[in-house]
Queue: 3 jobs
Job 1
Amino acid sequence: MTNSAHSLLTVAGDGIRSAGPVGSARTLRAVEEEGPEPRWTPISSDQLDGLLWRIEKEAGDGEIWVFAYGSLMWNPRFEIAATDDAVAFGWHRAFSLRIEWLRATSEAPGLMLALRQGGSCSGLILKLSHATQRQDLRTLLGREIRYADVCDVVRWITVRTQTGNRRALAFWACPRQSHLAENVPLEEAAGLIAQACGPAGSCAQYLQRTVLDLAERRIFDRNLWQLQRIVAAKLQALPAPINPA
């Protein structure tokens, strides 16, 4: 953990500039693991294997590509055989998954990024390596789907690339199928993100990493830029951390 300052970004017209430093000490703190979130059933190894089998059957002998729109862009944690820019039409990214662990707690819940229907979403597609495809896919599913209640959040979507359309796996939020999904107004979302921190870090840190990565790739997401400006303002309004003598 570091107390160094980090810059969030703002957008002026079509340009990107620094919005000033936001100290990570204002968002990060030591938090003990609370265990699984209440009211949710952790996914079992057998259930994970069943989900893996279904996706492999649907993929057939074809390649498996994954649509990355958030942390998978800057922290995929699996071997990438190829990558390409992609746009998912009919989808948009939004902080709409309420969480009470990892980057939040039951006392200070937060929000994580998800894919919602409507609009368009620019990101990447990542190709799983054929040599490690089964192992990497199982690891990815275990990372993204921790509860049996939300096994339906993975699906195939069609994305557009420079060479044409391609089918890719995506992790999404469906209000009719998952109680985790919420359509949260930006001001409310910013308040949850600014307060939340868990054993894996803070929600503000996650937002920052995503915004910085999108900026480096010249991907402009208006809602995320507006959200990070509100979060930055809330964090800058907090009292400065007191350094121990």
Job 2
Amino acid sequence: MAWYLRREFEHDKDVWVFNDLRFVRNGDAAQIDHLVLCRSGMILIESKSATGEITVNKHGEWSRRTGGVERGMESPVTQARLQADFLRRLMAENDGRLLDRQLGGLAPQHFNHHWPIDIFVAISDQGQISRGMEVPELLKADQAAGAARAIVKKRQHGRRSLNPINYDAIYFLSDVEIGRLRGFLLSSHTPLRAGRTATPPPWEQIPAVPSAQPPAPQAGTAVRPETEAHQGPTPDFVQRARETHPNAFRPWTSADDQRLAALFRAGSSVDMLCAEFGRPPKGITMRLERLGLVHPQQGAGYRR
């Protein structure tokens, strides 16, 4: 499913895809397989790996047949709705620091029960679906990405229509708000730790930064005097750079590296990362190279 979503949205600058998120709130937890974020809402996709047959009978009861044995199962549509409600509540508790725009100059937006979160259940390509009743949220994995794209287009059209009773038109996050929300989703992710085997999400898998210490000179090699060594940019140059990028030439912290890797793997472009970190494009691409996230030959071509 992640592959289909990446193919569908990798070139869309107003859509962000998150995979394998886990949130904890008041002692409860929600695992979200795939989350598509746009400026006017979200699409939550519950992914089900199945090699047999998934059946929904006329009463809305779900079952799975594998190896000739049929067993009942919990409705993944209900599960996805509960996850969406969980996420709305989590966001609503933090909307004071995530949202600051005024709606028509009258009232601020809020992440309440009106915040649009559409849901789909995606069955793996190897599985089969038997329908005793129509379940519009139930799709094969290769169909779900296209359905998500249709939702995004509907919301973009709703925004242009400015229909006052259309919640796709009411909600529209600014660049600052969408950046805050993306950072909030990543920072709120709480992976499983002890007691169960879980693969850390991509933004936690950050290689160690190589040492910046130069190699020791070989015997008999002339060492250039310190006064002749490269002294870095002049103060005037740094001051001019910081007029447009306030953090230019400042040291990177480990927290910066974690956040940079998270946003990069979530699909942020160089321009978006420059705005987020207050650094010039070259500083961003060089740090990505240093973290091993892009190849040095790729850095200059990383999409803006």
Job 3
Amino acid sequence: MTILIALLSVLITEGMDQQTWGIILPTELEIRLALSAAPRHLQPEAGIYVLEAKGYRRVRASKNGFECLVTRPDFGTQLGCFEPQCYGPEAVKTIVPAVIENARLRALGLSNKEIDRRMREGFDSGRFQKPSRQGVVYMLSPANRVALRQDGLMVSGGGIVPAPPHIMFFGTDLDKQELGIQVSGARPAWLPILTAENSYWAWVVMMLGPDAEREIREYDENVKLVKDMGKYLNMDATGSHH
């Protein structure tokens, strides 16, 4: 994992549209990375999207209601940011269309400010649906590399950090007081995290215990994925294998 973190910090010079996306991976590698977000029993029948120059393309339809893709939330300004996510049925209905539209607008070259305005307008107008019931998004990949956030929002120039495997639930319009997670002093590690409180984009984040995290990281396919991600990015950065 330490090797992967170091490699993802390298400025990639090939295989990407830096201004628009950051890094576009080979399709096969992107598929594996997307599926790594899901519990293993969901992976064989989950739908898959891959990111290409014009946005997301569906490469496999879902047979179980779950869909997987890799987001790059701070497109182009945080190179090496990968957030593999597996969306449950409610999120597929409500959040995934917004994620796909965001990427389409990004491919057209619109500014962050304009994209944010259009996305908010889409939710306010009803074009995009807010979640109407509880739903789940799995982020179980051992290769999570997330943009630093403050209260759920990307911190400009804040960089990228590795994130342990975790599970998120809708927290639409919730605040920290409602969840009872406002604490003074040191925050217990087992408390849930609430991102972007009081918004339609709020998530309640639950971290996994050490045994579950270890099992995920030591799963053979995940070990190979981390190795192949590092190998690919290192090759792109240097032009040769090491």
